[in-house]
Amino acid sequence: KRPAGAPDKALAKPVTKVGIIGAGLMASQFALLFLRRLQVPVVITDLDQGRVDKAVAGIRSEIEALVGKGRVSDDEGKRLSALISGTVDKADFADCDWVIEAVFEELGVKQQVFAEVEPHLSETAVLATNTSSLSVEQIGAKLAHPERLVGFHFFNPVAVMPLIEVVKTPQTDDATLATAMRVSKDLKKNAVITRDTPGFVVNRVLAKLLGEAMHAVEQGSSFEDVVAAQRAFGFPMDPFVLLDLVGLKVGAHVLDTHHGAFPDRFFESPALHELAEAGVLLEKDAKGDPKGI
Ligand code: CAA
């Protein structure tokens, strides 16, 4: 039986080439996952050739590391390395049927990168955004075809975390949604379809947990006590290590978005903004000082 809200699987479009917009850490993690699971060409783009080259080299060395650990055979390693490429020319996305963005978490930036790439795409291409808390509908507001945009929200570390939130806007059509569900399955992830509400489902819960941990520190609790208190509940990571993993800038942004949408229920965290600006990590070293200072 089809889960509630899931479209007819037969509508899913084949994905024979993947385009990734952005050449940061998250984009590289996506590239590796798509290469390994879909075994199709993956092209990665950014504004700057240097960033693109660095990302492609980084992905190839990750593949070599997997070969070194015996996780991927020599032959497969060579094949995967040949399947990844980089470009600054959006015209190279013409034959991509799945295009996912992993650029900075800012509405204008995400709107702009999609607007730049859309004219180069085939009519059947699906666009996916990895936003963690922006409105997917607003991200698609400048698209000629917002019906082929879907939210596709991964979690860190991308290779390990089993969940993807597939976010349906009022415009997302069934073929787009069915393709996103098929891609999730091919990536061996569990997908949940969520509505396009701030924070979708996961970050509503996580922003509460991490935001309250920061707020407790701002109100005078020590980092150590907050960690010890949360440890009692068996979470796999302490809240501050998890914030480091998410990235403090992204974490602060997620809290701001939730506070903006639900001001009576979520706090902003000025301390998190300051720490993000200072470029420190919250995880402590053996002496109890924050690592990275
Ligand atoms: N990158 C890639 N792989 C990693 C990794 C990383 N950063 N960290 C761990 N792994 C892999 C390991 O290689 C290992 O793989 P194998 O089993 O194949 O060897 C596997 O994960 C388990 O690793 P460990 O046994 O060393 O570690 P663990 O048991 O402590 O688990 C963890 C690690 C899965 C990351 C666990 O700590 C965890 O689940 N943490 C919570 C993560 C989480 O909540 N993420 C969501 C963040 S929110 C977000 O990302 C999105 C947002 O919108 C803000």
Q: Could you give the topology of this structure?
A:
Layout: E1 18-21, H1 25-38, E2 42-45, H2 49-68, H3 74-83, E3 84-87, E4 98-101, H4 107-117, E5 126-129, H5 136-139, E6 149-153, E7 163-168, H6 174-186, E8 190-195, H7 202-218, H8 223-231, H9 239-246, H10 248-261, H11 270-278
Parallel strand pairs: 1-2, 1-4, 2-3, 4-5, 5-6, 7-8
Antiparallel strand pairs: 6-7
Acetoacetyl-coenzyme A binds at residues 132, 155-157, 159-161, 203, 206, 236-237, 242, 246, 250, 254.
In summary, what is this structure?
With 293 residues, the protein is of the alpha/beta class. The protein is built from 11 helices and 8 strands. The protein folds into 2 domains: 9-195, NAD(P)-binding Rossmann-like Domain (Rossmann fold); 203-278, N-(1-d-carboxylethyl)-l-norvaline Dehydrogenase, domain 2.
